[in-house]
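All the exercises in this workshop are built on plain-text protein records. There is nothing in a record beyond a sequence line and a structure line. A learned vocabulary of local backbone shapes supplies the integers on the structure line. The question running through the whole workshop is how a given chain folds. Here is such a record, shown just as it appears in the course material:

***
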Amino acid sequence: MRGLIGAISGLVFLGWTAAEAETLKLVEVITSPERTEVLRKQVEAFEADNPGTEVEIVSLPWGQAFEKFATMVAGGDIPDVVEMPDRWAGIYKDRLVDLNSRIAEWEYGGTLTQKTLDMARQTDGKTARMIPYGFYLRALFYNKKLLEQAGVDHPPRTMEEFMDASRAVSELDGKYGYCLRGGPGGLNGWIMMAATMNGNNTFFDENGQSTLNQPGSVEGLQFLIDMYQKGYAPKDSVSWGFNEIVAGFYSGTCAFLDQDPDALIAVAERMDAEDFAVVPMPVGPAGKAFPTIGFAGWAMFDSSENQDLSWKLIAHLSGPEANKEWAKRVGVIPIHEGAEQDPHFRTEQFAGWFETLNGEEYVPTVMPTYLEQFGYFADSIALETSQEALLGQISAQQLADTWAAFLTEEYARWKAQQ
């Protein structure tokens, strides 16, 4: 009894009682056991720094996260802080707190990279609806041994070299040039190739028309179709998703893989560092490449009853050291200036991503996630029709026209709401 009284007295001495404890709810939506453990440890450090604060972590498996989170919000079970994917920001933008003023007053606000600030404000160019925690930026993995065996003396710098090198590797017995992602999540590859061959990554022209069926874009779509139909990618890659393409690379089946830094975790576990490297995506006829960039970040709902404490949690998770740890374990490019000087990132493998971020010829492409139906387009329409194109059931032009018609209509609807 005396010990209990002493414990309670200690809590009162610290300035709070059990009845006064603050509880925050944090929802994560891109989950894995390892990832959740990193988040849990960072949250425990936050709780230790803020006595009397408890953070409830709700983990939603990514495959069902969109629907489950929408159901939570519709039912009034709204978190204080949420892991917000870029493609969701347009849906919830009116319910997320503008973080601009808090970032301006934050001790680490001045070290956020410009790309981080731009992406924080990507829904309207002004309102910071989240702090991104890192970037999923495309670059090109290449297998040094396979290129050497095929007589290719350097990784491809242009789209023409990319096709030629893929052809050369595919002439080796049981080997292929490119780990094509023809299944779920494959839209990024198609968009990159279309933009690179078209010479720009503007999704809509001045008249609000999609650029995806412009001649250069069609040529980019045809590039991937040719890569598959000529046998420079495995036949079953028409249905490959993330796990399959990454395994195709580290198993030595394919020489090239375009992916984000999260793929490096699995590749580095299974390949010797001297056997592979990462370079920027090949440039097109205009001398530029347009790798896609995606992100997620920490956002705060305006219904939070303790926005100051919610901001403290976001700031804690977004600080330079916590973010660097997160980036290393999750597989993203960190958000603070100077992070590339960390020994973990100063490698031949990471060089391709930092070169992409700093090179003028590489223009990161942000998907039009502000369109309400973009998620449906990416996960359903684009998946089905791109597979039809790979299998020769529709032409590159038909594919382009289908995509352009849908996106043009969606853009007009979005524009009317502005």
Observations:
- Confidence is low (pLDDT under 50) at residues 1-19.
